[in-house]
Design brief:
About 55% of the residues lie in helices and about 10% in strands. The chain is an alpha/beta fold and about 290 residues long.
Length: about 290
């Protein structure tokens, strides 16, 4: 009889336990898992978004507080929703939001992103939303906005880095290459790809901005002869000018010799010796100029 009387109590306990699990599951399911495909849902309404990794101890410590935040927001019928991003599954989102530490929490209100830097307990995070403490925080600038074009490019680079990391792991674990061998392969590949991209860039620049060729000028034969004569004439004038420069230099040198002290002392003796000579003094001849 005792076993028969206890059976309804066991059934009631099991029923209450199932209801509790169902309610708890409904609260926990309110946390939206975001990925590369559905992350734009947070651009509408108010959200608290957590970036975590399964291997992160701090993220695991934040788990109970985050669950409590979700449950209390649901019980109070707040418009705020919670979401979570696993950076190991969605590396592009971590690059789009420039997540450099884990866990990282963002508050999103109608497309404005603010990083939450307060205490990591449910009461503080709930007060941050209820009392609108987020108004005192500086939102992300336009150029760092996750939905901008430049941050989309950063997200693609993060995806590429994750893919390269997977290839590096595969080369070491599957093919048994040493670490330096994997790095050598990546170095050769980087040099080859860089040279190929450089060649493509040069071709594109030459296509868009072709080099300018000198314009060809067509002249008649008579004009060519006239230009040739003018060139010869200018050469003759330059030669005559050089001759004038030489003559002036020689003339200045002769004047200096006349006025030198040695010449003045020997001048009387020279005149005395040449008094009986009837030869005329020698006249310096000037170099004849070339005919034009």
């Amino acid at each position: 009889m005792a076993r028969v009387n206890k059976s309804p109590q066991v059934l009631n306990f099991f029923l209450y336990f199932c209801l509790t699990i169902c309610c708890f599951s409904s609260y926990v399911s309110a946390t939206r898992e975001l990925d590369e495909d559905n992350w734009r849902e947070i651009l509408q309404g108010e959200w608290m978004v957590e970036f975590y990794a399964p291997w992160c101890p701090a993220c695991n410590a934040l788990g109970p507080a985050w669950t409590e935040l979700t449950n209390r927001a649901a019980r109070k019928n707040l418009a705020m929703k919670t979401a979570a991003v696993d950076v190991t599954k969605s590396p592009g989102l971590s690059g789009r939001f420039v997540v450099t530490a884990l866990p990282t929490i963002f508050h999103v209100k109608d497309g404005e992103f603010r990083q939450y830097k307060g205490p990591r307990d449910a009461e503080a995070m709930l007060s941050y939303v209820e009392r609108a403490h987020w108004r005192s925080a500086e939102p992300l600038s336009a150029w760092k906005s996750p939905d901008s074009l430049q941050m989309s490019l950063v997200a693609h680079f993060f995806k590429l880095s994750q893919a390269l990391r997977s290839v590096h792991t595969m080369l070491m674990e599957t093919y048994g290459l040493p670490t330096w061998g994997s790095y050598l392969i990546f170095a050769v590949g980087t040099i080859f790809i860089g040279a190929l991209l450089g060649l493509m860039l040069v071709c594109v620049i030459d296509l868009l901005y072709p080099p300018r060729r000198p314009d060809k000028v067509t002249v008649s034969l008579a004009e060519a002869d006239q230009r040739k004569k003018d060139t010869n004439k200018s050469d003759d004038e330059q030669e005559l000018l050089n001759d004038d420069i030489v003559d002036e230099a020689e003339h200045s040198q002769s004047d200096g010799e006349k006025n030198s002290p040695s010449d003045t002392e020997e001048e009387p003796a020279t005149k005395a010796e040449g008094a009986g000579d009837d030869k005329p003094n020698e006249v310096r001849k000037r170099r004849s100029r070339k005919a034009d």
